[in-house]
Amino acid sequence: MITFEAKIREQTVRLFSDLPLKNAVGAVFRTLAQVSQKTNIFSERFALCFGWAYFYMSPREDENGNKFWLVQTGDYDKDPQKDRIDNCTVSLVVQNMQIEAVQIAKVNPEPATCKDTVLVLKEAMNAEDVYMNRSEAAKDGDSGWYFGLLDDPNEENHTADDYIRVPSCELIKFRTEALRVMQMPVGTVAVFHENEMTALIDSEDRPLKFTTEAERKALAEKQRAQFAAEVKEAEERAKAEQENK
Predict the structure, then answer these.
(1) Which residues of 211-242 are buried (b: 16+ CB within 10 A; e: fewer)?
(2) How many helices (DSSP H) and strands (DSSP E) are in the chain?
(3) Using one digit for the tens of pLDDT, what is the confidence trace for 182-208?
(4) Do β-strands 11-17 and 2-8 pair in parallel, antiparallel, or remain unpaired?
(5) 5 forms bridges with which residues in the sheet?
(6) Is 112 in contact with 179 (CB distance < 8 Å)?
(7) Cα distance between residue 10 and residue 130, in whole Å
């Protein structure tokens, strides 16, 4: 696990991640620093809604007795509205997915959080070919997103019992890739085959750009190599400085 560290108002703040997501972590640290100008973030009662995810602060002490504040996030394996976890990887990855989606598509994002609900056709949860469609939110806490079957032969015959409304974070359990489009604007339609997006369309039926899985893997490899090179350079610099003392 990678430890990221920053100083905010003379306090040490750390964040744990399994991946070298330094840009995403940096954005969280910068936001915390900005918020700290007006709000006391150094409290277990503090909560930061940053994009789709929520982040919290927990006081800790390391093995050397150094005190610090650890950034936590919701535990999506349990109840993220109540349970917290030290590893922020999932929240950071989803944030990156959503930021990339709106940037590549060149659209203005419309907010949706992990707590906002999605209307899901139960039959679609384990189907291969599904789609997501965003309408105007019916009420607060509703993302406006619908998750259904592509080319559903029984579309006109479904009853209320065929649907379930779940927090958007539940998509992690059966269609993680669907979270990529959560910040896309009203009218967006996204089509998926298994866990890969195959089409993205705006409110006027115009195709929107999106990256393929292969393109994202190539970029991830490049970022990991860059991070490894930076770590090696920092280690060599620290070693040289130690030898020169």
Answers:
(1) beeeeeeeeeeeeeeeeeeeeeeeeeeeeeee
(2) 3, 12
(3) 999 999 999 999 989 999 999 999 999
(4) antiparallel
(5) 14
(6) no
(7) 49
Q: Which two tokens stand for residue 109?
A: 């994002």
Q: Which amino acid is at 193?
A: H
Sketch the domain layout of the chain as residue ranges: 2-94, 107-211
Burial level of 158, CB count in 10 A (0-12/13-18/19+)? Answer: middle
What pLDDT digit, counting tens, does each position of 30-54 carry?
Answer: 999 999 999 999 999 999 999 999 9
**In the numeric block, which tokens belong to residue 23?**
């840009």
Distance CA 120, CA 99 (A): 24
Place of tokens 């090696």: 232
Residue type, 141: G
Is the confidence at residue 245, as pLDDT, over 80? no
- Please give the Cα distance from 240 to 32 (Å, whole number): 34
